[in-house]
Amino acid sequence: MKKVKVIIDGKAIGSVEDLQRILLAEFSLQPAHFESMDTLWEALVWHVPVPVTLEWNHFSDSRASIGPYADQLMNLLYEVDEQLEELFRFTVKL
């Protein structure tokens, strides 16, 4: 199975909705998956086709635009990485 690489460009993130739109499109998620961090975690663990690598470039630009949500999502993505091990790889580039 071929590994997919998804890149989030933090410079293109101006709102939480921008970031959610990227995840919706790239991972075929549903709006309901963004109701809470718990529902998003479940969606990423159970519904994202793996193997996948997610790279978040220019994270500091995202954080400047969307505030604490960027940190919460980054932490959640690291948790998914830890849970799924080699099937879901997450990296951040400031």
Describe what this molecule looks like in 3D.
With 94 residues, this protein is of the alpha/beta class. Helices cover 51% and strands 19% of the residues. The chain has a 3-stranded parallel β-sheet. Helix 2 runs parallel beside helix 4 and helix 3 (59-66) crosses helix 4. The longest helix is centred in the C-terminal third of the chain and has 17 residues, at 68-84.
Q: What pattern of helices and strands is seen along the backbone?
A: EHHEHHE
User: Which term fits the overall shape?
Assistant: globular
Largest sheet: 3 strands, parallel
Provide the β-strand percentage band. Answer: 15-25%
Please count the beta strands (DSSP E, at least 2 residues each). 3
Radius of gyration: 12 Å
Helicity level:
40-55%
Strand order of the largest sheet: 1-2-3
Itemize the secondary structure elements and their pairings.
Elements: E1 4-9, H1 16-27, H2 37-47, E2 52-57, H3 59-66, H4 68-84, E3 88-93
Parallel strand pairs: 1-2, 2-3
Please give a handful of descriptors for the protein shown.
94 residues, single chain, alpha/beta
Short description:
The protein has 94 residues and is an alpha/beta fold. 51% of the residues lie in helices and 19% in strands. The protein has helices at 16-27, 37-47, 59-66, 68-84; strands at 4-9, 52-57, 88-93.
